[in-house]
Specification:
The structure is a homotetramer. Chain A is an alpha/beta fold. The first copy, chain A, is 29% helix and 31% strand. The longest helix of chain A is centred in the last third of the chain and has 14 residues.
Chain lengths: 167, 167, 167, 167
């Protein structure tokens, strides 16, 4: 079973650039994570953008929807900043009348700490999401904090730094 | 949704004891992994034994089956050494005529590198298995190398250090 | 032998704050480094400021010189951003006619990658500097890249990201 | 200034071999440590043996003394298991009437946790020892726990897992 991974930026891929004395979104950390975990499932990675999710616009979201719909894969993982992940999941869920999206299992995930840190949630989250996307039926989901949420039934609790059901 | 995690030993929990100048299976690494990943799903951990899977006997496997059957949870994650994980999954799959097991989603996982290492598959594998156990229908599965295998349809390729379909 | 450690900011102590989606200088990483390395030598830590060294002013440097001179310890380690570490070392070297500074062994160190990263020079550099400060005779030194440089005889090669002799 | 590093085994270089389900002393971790810390000082590494220090014999110690004496470098770092590091330092100190050893700065170091672990003293200890060997006058020293000890004036407190002055 193959998974099509789309990256849009967010925290997972933030790396520290000493020349600039700051972090920036770098190349996707996912290939490295997959090598260290010896992941053997087939996958394809497409980088759509490198944005903090507070900077993601409605145009960006429509681009994501179009790109996901155009994928020949039925299993799609979308990495995304956590701040507006709920909004992107919502738009994708509303777009599933589009047959090309409606037939797909779409899982969004992200992280609060970059994969480049010694202590991070990135690795666990990517592992968790990779299983969710291979096992869940068609639909749009958010996979965070070791739980699977249906799009439209989740919110980010910013103060607590975690996702919670919003039924 | 709650997950009942049973630990039996294996590589995930191996830690280096300097006094002994060697690695031994230590306390479960899972609570620490869950703290770092900010896992909020309910779970319970039961340590059944601390054995390399080459040392696991048929009696041990029957104990595991009995303990899993006695769990009040329908979602069960079993961490296990990789060398005989296939055999344990096989016995559990053969025991599912026992209604108490047959109603459960049972996922086995392990690792080739301890969670205590800087470079490891443990974190990804635990994350991956935690999603699988929450999403899969009742049955017995092995979750390794970023893939889900049905018990009875998988083997460990020892030379390559990975699990493969054995249909 | 006791070491007085003064922190001024710089890269060693940068941590990722997910709420802010960025790195900022956090609490000193040194106590944690010392615990993990089981450091038993006596030490005292004084935080002077939390600045990228590009933001350090001449007033800041004079404050550092005054604080170091006022220390009752003869062994002083100063952690500092790498971009203007050479300038601070130069000012301290010029101030050693002040008897309170002239009697001291003063070692400056920093890092190109924060201690919070999985791959970092921070730990090695702090270890290296802690030995240098305990063994060198009175004077002002920069300890970077596994080498000890006399203040006034070193420059930072920004393009290559390392310190070199500048005789 | 060049440093000649001799490795004899011990904990720094222990790696986990999943095929064997155990740790073993692997290739020296030092080149990798030096790359990550961007160490630019000249060095040469010679592997003498791969032994836990409880297995080191008097013949082994005489070999070490001969090899160190034959080195064309005056700065020598010897990595060694911690259990009998004191004994090896003692023999080297007693051999310094041999002019070829007596002119050298010889620093022994090791670790309680392998460099391959996420939490380790190896990196700090190697950094610390690399400074000590470049700054100390001729003699034989043990560099552990962030302190420098003269050979003959140190013991390992096994219960506490650290080195202490033994005056």
């Amino acid at each position: 079973m193959a998974v099509h991974i789309f990256t849009t930026g967010g925290t997972i891929d933030k790396v520290y650039f000493d020349v600039l004395s700051e972090y920036q979104i770098g190349d996707s950390a996912i290939p490295g994570i997959f090598v260290e975990a010896n992941v053997t499932c087939d996958y394809q990675i497409t980088e759509l953008m490198r944005k903090d999710s507070l900077e993601i616009t409605e145009e960006d979201r429509k681009l994501m929807a179009a790109e996901l719909a155009a994928s020949e894969h039925s299993r799609v993982l979308l990495t995304h900043g956590t701040d507006t992940m709920v909004q992107t999941a919502q738009l994708l869920a509303e777009s599933t009348s589009d047959k090309n999206l409606g037939d797909k299992t779409i899982v969004l995930t992200g992280a609060m700490q970059p994969a480049s840190l010694r202590v991070t949630d990135s690795i666990f989250n990517v592992g968790f999401a990779m299983a969710a996307v291979q096992t869940l039926p068609p639909g749009v989901y958010i996979a965070m904090n070791g739980r699977v949420f249906n799009a439209g039934e989740v919110k980010k609790n910013r103060a607590a730094g975690r996702f919670e059901a919003n039924l």
